[in-house]
Amino acid sequence: MSQGLPRRLRFAFLMQVAMASVVIVAGAYVALQIAKQDVAARTLRDEAAYYWQQRAIDPARVAPDGAMLHGYAIPVGASAASLPDTLRTLEPGLHNLPDMLVLVQRRDEVQLYLTYPQSRIDRIALQLILAPVLLALLAVALSSWFTYRIARRMTAPLHWLAREVRRWDPRDPDVSALAPDKLPIGAGVETRQLAGALQRMGERMRLFVHRERDFTRDASHELRTPLTVIRVASDLMQSDPDLPQRVHRSLARMQRAVRDMEAVIDAFLLLAREGEIEPQREDFLVADVVDEEVEKARPMLAGKPVELVVNARTSPRLHASPRVLGVMVGNLLANACAFTEGGKIEVTVGSDRIVIRDTGIGMSPETLQRAFDPFFRGNLANPAGRGMGLSIVRQLGERFHWPVNLESAPGQGTTATIRFAA
Questions:
Q1: pTM for this prediction
Q2: Do residues 313 and 405 both lie within one domain?
Q3: For a FRET experiment, which of 2, 10, 248, 342 has its CA 20 to 30 Å from that of 140?
Q4: What is the pLDDT of residues 6-64, one digit of tens each?
């Protein structure tokens, strides 16, 4: 899950403090290594210069010997038995030994050895550099903390704005929460402009959703009345035995078109409902709904050498909306009947699914990929269908948690599966 702005801001400042601390400590360490050698070397040279100055006044001057600084003055050519073993082979110059820093100088036939312990050098250098490093780290931490507090205060209105928008119901956003008088104290010009834009967008979105839902509902109800008149009139005319066969066929096509349109209207009415308002639920047998939709679909196969069979392996009972399931099954059956010119359409009822398998023309992978797109028709040569059936089935399946899956291959038919909780 992506992090929010305050957490990212906190992480950025922590990384800033960590990186600055690493740079300061690394720089201090390098400076320490350079400084400690320079300080000790200068100390030894100053002591040597002082010694030679005093020896010029008093030739019997002995080499300095203190708690930290040890010296040896050996006449050139004299025995070096008094020297430690590590110093006997050293030539004039500055020597950095593991445990000491040694300065060797030769003047007036006297060789001077001055030693300074490395541990003392490290201790002095650390004391010199520790305080500045600690002060620098403290300054970085304090400045970062104050900067973070200021940045957090500046971004707090944006965080509040994002939290309020996240609470919106997409179908009915509460735009009043972004009114200017409800913005947090300290909201800048940019935040107020963004809040105003979001408020206007939310209001337009709310009006659009309401207008679309109202139009779909009202149009569906208005269309249902003339369709009912057409269906009743065609039923009455169909019952007249004196009508020519040609007229009976026309009436049958009219009745099929009316049933198709009624199924579309039913689907629109279901989708136009509020998300929290579900159709009336009841206990029903899935096989009963399938049988009813199969009987409605049989007239579509009139004159076609197609066998329509139902294979009810079981008869699960659902507590849901039979109307929704009926619209989905009816649309899938209508597609199977429209694109199957011969062979068989088999409807199988399982414990957790309905499978509709046909031996029709099938679909290519490209057509199958777009099969659920509204108004898409894969076979333009076939005038049947409006390109809405599969789109409606998918939307109803998503709305009522009955996912729909299609499997198809050109010339091998199509298999549609509706899964539901048994």
A1: 0.50
A2: yes
A3: 2
A4: 777 778 888 888 888 888 888 877 877 777 777 778 888 888 898 888 888 888 888 88
Distance CA 355, CA 357 (A): 6
Same domain, 90 and 206: no
Q: 308: helix, coil or strand?
A: strand
Query: Residue range 189-209: average pLDDT?
Result: 82
Question: Last residue of a domain, which of 277, 294, 314?
Answer: 277
Last residue of a domain, one of 234, 261, 277: 277
Q: State the pLDDT at residue 57.
A: 86
255 and 330 inside one domain: no
Say which DSSP state 299 is in: G
Taking Cα atoms as reference points, which of 136, 137, 186 lies closest to residue 161? 186
Does 267 lie in the same domain as 212? yes
pLDDT, tens only, 61-94: 888 888 778 888 888 878 878 888 888 888 899 9
Neighbouring CB atoms inside 10 A of 413's CB total 22
Nearest to 147 by CA among 158, 135, 155: 155
Under 8 Å between Cβ of 116 and 69: yes
Entry field: residues in the chain: 422
- On whether the CB atoms of residues 353 and 419 are closer than 8 A, the answer is yes
Tell me, what amino acid is at 362? G
73, amino acid identity: A
Could you tell me if residue 95 is inside a domain? yes
Same domain, 203 and 299: no
Query: Could you give the count of Cα atoms lying within 13 Å of 263 in the half-sphere of its Cβ?
Result: 28
Neighbour-count burial for 220-229, b at 16+ CB within 10 Å, e otherwise: beeeeeeeee
Q: Where are the alpha helices (DSSP H) in 102-188?
A: 118-166
CATH classification of the domain holding 348: 3.30.565.10
Q: Would you state the structure tokens that stand for residue 82, as one six-digit string? A: 């008094």
Residues 222 and 266 in one domain: yes
Residue 156, in any domain of the structure: no
Nearest-10 Cα torsion for 259, 264, 266, 270 = 160
Give helix then strand counts, H and E, for the chain: 8, 11
- At 382, the pLDDT band (50, 70, 90 cuts) reads low
CATH number of the CATH domain containing 215: 1.10.287
Q: Tokens standing for 266?
A: 């039913």
Pairing verdict, β 282-285 and 306-312 = unpaired
Residue 364 maps to a domain:
yes
Domain residues for 48? 5-145
In a domain, 350, yes or no: yes
Bridge partners (DSSP) of residue 71 are 114
H or E stretch including 325?
helix 322-338
